[in-house]
Amino acid sequence: MTAANFTCPIPIEQYPTVLLAHGGGGKLMQQLITKMFAPTFTVAGQNPTHHDSVALTMPPGRIAFTTDSYVIQPLFFPGGDIGSLAIHGTVNDLAMSGARPLYLSVGFILEEGLPMKTLWYIVQSMQRAARRAGVRIVTGDTKVVDRGKGDGIFINTSGVGVIEHPYDISPTSVCPGDAILLSGDLGRHGIAIMAKREGLNFETTIKSDSAPVHEPVLQMLKAGIEIHCLRDLTRGGLGSALNEIAAGAGVAIQVEEALISIPPDVQGACEILGLDPLYVANEGRFIAIVPFHCAEQALKILRHYHPEAECIGTVVGRSDRTLGRVTLQSRIGAGRLLDLLSGEQLPRIC
Amino acid sequence: MTAANFTCPIPIEQYPTVLLAHGGGGKLMQQLITKMFAPTFTVAGQNPTHHDSVALTMPPGRIAFTTDSYVIQPLFFPGGDIGSLAIHGTVNDLAMSGARPLYLSVGFILEEGLPMKTLWYIVQSMQRAARRAGVRIVTGDTKVVDRGKGDGIFINTSGVGVIEHPYDISPTSVCPGDAILLSGDLGRHGIAIMAKREGLNFETTIKSDSAPVHEPVLQMLKAGIEIHCLRDLTRGGLGSALNEIAAGAGVAIQVEEALISIPPDVQGACEILGLDPLYVANEGRFIAIVPFHCAEQALKILRHYHPEAECIGTVVGRSDRTLGRVTLQSRIGAGRLLDLLSGEQLPRIC
Hints:
350 residues; 4-stranded mixed sheet; 29% helix; alpha+beta; 8 helices; Phosphoribosyl-aminoimidazole Synthetase, Chain A, domain 2; homodimer; 2 domains; CATH 3.30.1330.10
């Protein structure tokens, strides 16, 4: 957190909070861009915010393109904040195409009255997260809405990356017999947010798992593993992701409860809060669906990053009766259907 | 507006308004994506919203990348709505790099309680605007915030395009002697919004100029014109754009008031409202800075789209004393400084 101690480049005494004029296209907006955003996000002398759009030279390959808006509350939570989350989330969406994330855009929607220090903290957090993930913030936009018409800060990050592999990583590539690998333990992000929001105190602070996941994906591809499908386990968690893939691929999926790692403190919190950890959001976990014969090698790579990574199940077939169905084999051997929830367990989790 | 009469694909009786659950990653969000967004935005059987990110094959060339969030109020105005604006604005940002706009992403931040019909109208308007501009909406994201924490709907659109010319279109390419071309008349968008917001009635309804501008830009490039700089005249209008370019290029700029076309009804409204039309936002106008010897040819192309297009001034030099200065020669011959405004004249204009 050292970098967060840098003095705010906007004079706080003069502008303690964000004003409507900071989004108006005049001097105050220019000040915000040239003093806060540009120097913080700039790499190697490039100024990312002086133009309407930025010209980029891409390495050869298809490109991946994605967008996500972040409206999480609270803005700061154990293990991260809206800024780092906005970087990790979009990096991870690119990674889910097997792409190497390269460039991000940042669109801020600020509410009049947001403390300037809060914005500064978030901007620095984004910069650190981007640097660690090896991506560059190259273009941006700032809007300010009147007090009571927003909620402090919303952030959109869009991203482009390069796809250097030849595969079609999508549900349509999923085949019966494929192995379903889970990249780590489940439930930390959703429970960290919920605990902070509800003021719950557990013996240990549960930290969000928010982190970039492109490295294990690129390592699997580098090792020659033909990945059929990838999905990060954000809103809706593992349960929703498996349902979407089963429906999209026209297959049935079977997973084993005993193989899914859920930290005891997350499990405990879920019991208190009445939540099913299989539907709780994660921000640094994903599933990889790979041909069965690659599973062991892929798992070895995943475990290098998280020892809890596990092969949790298989794609079981394409009969009409079970199409789109996701079954969980419980610890005591009984099977239960994992359905798509109708709404969310936890609103504004990302 | 015919397409807007299609029946809303979400049953309005059951879901008359957007619920928090529509952003929760469960069944309701899936319904919104698969029934409303995907079929409307889909082209040629491609489903844009089933994956975290989309894989795109780009034509050879550098790529342009941009982002913009739209928070305009009111959502509907003469000449457009937040949906068409969100398409035109981002298409135009790409055009300002001289890029051919190709793909857009859409990020919705919806407020709980937004009428489902309003969302449906806006989605259809985006689809029509995208089709007319020749761009495809290929990926998206939907978030819902609690009532009172948003303002109906905010839209982020990010875009990628391909740069097929060899130039560096930016303030740093601007040279003394260059001609400054304005693509049409000024002030329609800002005044249309202001009139609607304030309930002002003029003899004729002033319509926003919101429109895509990539075609005239691509035509100029096709004709071999070496464009030095482009800037669309959105927030802050012509006055702010000229100031930013003068400062970025380290030059002085001189323009002539008599050559700048302002429609009489816009001029009249500005006088009533106490606004300077040179700082009012436009959403379909831009300036092109080109070598003096290309000005006539470029102007001919611009006038094909808007007969009011005009060469309004020149880049006058790089002396230390005048660096960054923008001077307006008034109709009576006097010069006045066009400075950067401190805030905005009109908040939430885009």
